[in-house]
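Database export, one record per block. Field names are fixed; values are copied verbatim from the stored entry.
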Amino acid sequence: MLANVSLQYFETGDVSFRASGAVTGKTFVQPAANQTGGPGLSTDLENLLVFKTCTAGQRPCGVAKYDVATGQGGGVHGQPGKIVPVTAGAAITAGQEVEVGAAGSAIPLATGRAAGLAMSGAANGADAMIKLY
């Protein structure tokens, strides 16, 4: 019999979450608190991860699929290699690495942590085609 078995918690491509604050779709998100339930945690049967809009310069865990109000459930694209739209917070050139900017937007990599690669150029405020890291 196998001992000390490690089982996968989630497929990172499509994860559900509870928003700790309002989250705008097509922006980077990051963990905000412990999951809402599960073994030894609470009696909350939803057992959701808790996310918020990613802080500028930090490493995101994915991109919100749509707008989510505070306390509501949402979905996130999180699998590395997935190409998804992210709102550009500055002009981005094809082939540039991007980091998280203000309000979870994508901006050209400067001093933050790389979050992805621009597959095509995008103007400030437009959807940028980003390959997630």
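Remark 1: The two ends are 37 Å apart (CA to CA).
Remark 2: The mean pLDDT is 90.
End of record.
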